[in-house]
Structure formats: structure tokens, C-alpha cells
Design goal:
Layout: H1 2-24, H2 28-49, H3 76-94, H4 107-126, H5 147-163, H6 174-178
Length: about 180
Amino acid sequence: GVLWNNAFPAINTASGIIENATEVGLSASLIAEARFFRAFDYFMLVQTYGGVPLDLGAGELKFNTSTVRTSVRNTVPEVYTKAIFPDLLQATTDLPDVSRLTGTVTKTVARLFLAKAYLTYGWWLENPNNIPTYPAAQRTDPDGHNAAWYFQQAYDVATIAIENPGPYGLQPTFYDVNVGG
């Protein structure tokens, strides 16, 4: 319940930033950070609970200012194709290569999470262990792609992230990973 109760306020805040950022003059990179975190929260929710609501009371992926005590859960394919993938794809375009501040999201981070989302959704489509999902949904992609297509997308996006790591990199030796200094 902790994830459920904490993710939706963060999603709503991100939606508010996305909707109102141009009015207050926020940069594209800050809007991209909001998109990244909205997608990240939805990704965590869909992995944990299956389908989750995209409409918090004001419409799908809209900033909600009213109190709503009911919700309708969208299917897993809807959450991925309407929320997670579009937000992460936009974030990979608009985020900077280097953090604007220590700890902020970069293009590389967004690419790696997009690759992870592609892998997870591809696995969900394939469903090798016949695991049920809630709400019940056909294991078909609304865009007509199959699991292999998503696995290939994950590979392609991860390869781009690995080849263009920005400020990130691997340590030369395993010893360097654990050096205290």
C-alpha cells in the first residue's frame, strides 16, 4: 500500500507540471524530468499491481484538483502505451546529457529505464508462466507489436545508452567499485 499511496500524489504533481510549465516558463528539461518521474511511478505501479488508473479525476494523465474517491483501473497495455512509453520517449529527447544539478535525471537514465520498460512489457506480452493480470486484458499490444519487437527496442535503446553514457561509466576494476575513497 505504501507505493500505491505515495505514487499517485507524485504522478498528479508531475501532471500539473507538464500541463502548466509553459505558462510559468519552465524549460523543456524540467518538463522532461516531470515526464520521467510520472513514467517511473507508473512503471513501479504497473509492475506491482497490474493495471492502474490513468484518470485521477480530471481525465487521463491530467492534473487533478478535486477530491475523487473512485477510480477505474486501466489495463496493463494501456498504462504502458498511453503513459510510460510516451513519457519516457519524450524524456529521452528533452533531458540533457549531463545533469543540471547533482542527482537530477539525464538522457542516459531515461534511456535505461525505457529499455527496462520495453523488456518488462515484452515479457508481459509473452507471459511465459501464464501469470494472470488485473484487470484482465488480452496479451496483445494496441500498436500491433509483439514481444520480440519490444525486446529489440530494449536492446536498441540500451545500446544507445551504453555507447553514450554521458557522465556515467564503469570502473576500470572491480576493486575500484568498493574503494572507500
